[in-house]
Specification:
405 residues; alpha/beta; Urease, subunit C, domain 1; TIM Barrel; 2 domains; seven-stranded mixed beta sheet; 13 helices; 20% strand; globular; binds zinc ion
């Protein structure tokens, strides 16, 4: 069945080749627009409402702005327990060093498959209610062969973008046997993971005793690549380090956090802009009270930038891409248009995808409506629940209502 979505006050297509669109800020904007989609979210037509073709049914969004659904390219959604007390302690001065992950590992190991499945699905639903569609999900709170296999199998139930993060932290039981843990990750754990995962990731952070050095990270990533997985890296979160340049050297699809970058790191990312995306996670800086990276400087240098939530129980328990956009604009120097690009096409690039994050014929982004006349309201009205994934199977309860201005 095809649906004509019409009454779109402002359509941000993110398609830089769309005829008749305003390309000044790279959003491919159309006004008084319409989109025809099928039940698989595939876009069949985009253009002015006055020229829209007929479809099996019609959905009028009442003058709202419409954007491609957000792509959340970095999440850790398969976990049990919470770390609200750790957060409270951090807010009164306790520094974050990556050690709290073991608390979540213990709680996750105790949870049943069904408990984890319910928690995961609730979190995915929460993201969709805030306008995200395609979501990357990492393992990393099992840290045994069976525990990682289980997390990846459950993640695969909700997304194709599944990432094996056996190299999340060195578990406490391996603290004095780090080499043995790297052998476990690159051997039996990877063997169990490859059936479910598309990506491998590692927490490369020489400033934390719980994370992995550059050489350990290289060993893990090279093993993943040999097993046919694409590469992602957690790098340069807690201080300058080898993560960014290791990611660039190994042609990883994404290096994430990038909180502490040297000039040489920025130059390397700019030279690799077709290959390696810098995924910024400002919710983490917010939730750990850390300095924000200068995202504007990265964009100006020619780096491909993505934004994601890093939704996880320790350093950023937020599922909200609009919140991330507001932070990127307010705290990291991006324009609203640059932030929206980073949260859609930028994040899609970090997953090596061109079929999401853009409203273009043949793409399957999912459409997100804003209870607002313009995408500018995402940063202008922080904390207000404006964005929601358009569910064409649900009755159009609110669609005739005029959006607030
Ligand atoms: Zn992360």
């Amino acid at each position: 069945m095809t649906t004509l979505v019409t009454g779109i006050g402002e359509l941000a297509t993110l398609d830089d080749s769309l005829d008749g669109a305003d390309h000044d800020e790279g959003l491919g904007l159309l006004h008084d627009a319409a989109v025809v989609v099928d039940d698989a979210d595939e876009v069949l037509w985009v253009g002015p409402a006055s020229a829209a073709p007929a479809a099996d049914r019609r959905r009028d969004v009442g003058g709202r702005a419409v954007i491609p659904a957000f792509v959340d390219s970095h999440t850790h959604l398969v976990f049990a327990g919470d770390r609200s007390r750790e957060f409270a302690a951090r807010m009164t001065g306790t520094a974050y060093d990556g050690g709290g992950i073991s608390t979540t590992v213990a709680a996750t190991r105790e949870a049943s498959d069904e408990e984890l499945r319910v928690l995961l699905r609730e979190r995915v639903d929460e993201m969709r209610r805030q306008g995200s569609n395609v979501i990357e999900v990492k393992s990393g709170y099992g840290l045994t062969v069976d525990g990682e296999e289980r997390a990846l199998r459950l993640a695969r139930e909700v997304t194709d973008e599944v990432t094996f993060l056996g190299g999340h932290v060195v578990p406490v039981e391996f603290a004095s046997r780090r080499d043995e843990f790297v052998d476990l990750v690159t051997g039996p754990m990877l063997g169990a993971a490859r059936e479910h995962a598309r990506w491998i990731d590692v927490f490369c952070e020489p400033h934390s005793a719980h994370a992995f050095t550059g050489e350990e990270a290289r060993t893990i990533l090279e093993a993943g690549r040999a097993a046919g997985l694409g590469l992602r890296v957690h790098g340069n979160q807690l201080g300058p380090g080898p993560g960014v340049r290791l990611a660039v050297e190994l042609a990883a699809a994404s290096v994430d956090h990038c909180t502490h970058l040297t000039v040489a790191d920025v130059d390397a990312l700019a030279a690799a802009s077709e290959t390696t995306v810098a995924t910024l996670l400002p919710g983490v800086e917010f939730s750990t009270r850390s300095p924000y990276p200068d995202a504007r400087a990265l964009v100006d240098a020619g780096v491909t930038v993505a934004l994601a939530t890093d939704c996880n129980p320790g350093t950023c328990y937020s599922s909200s891409m609009p919140f991330v956009i507001a932070l990127a604009v307010r705290e990291m120097g991006l324009t609203p248009a640059q932030a929206l690009r980073a949260a859609t096409v930028g994040a899609a690039a970090s997953l090596r995808r061109s079929d999401i994050g853009v409203i273009r014929v043949g793409a399957q982004p999912g459409l997100t409506t804003l209870d607002a006349p313009s995408h500018l309201h995402l940063a202008y009205r922080p904390g207000v629940p404006l964005a929601r994934l358009l569910d064409l199977s649900a009755p159009p309860l609110l669609d005739s209502r005029e959006p607030p201005t």
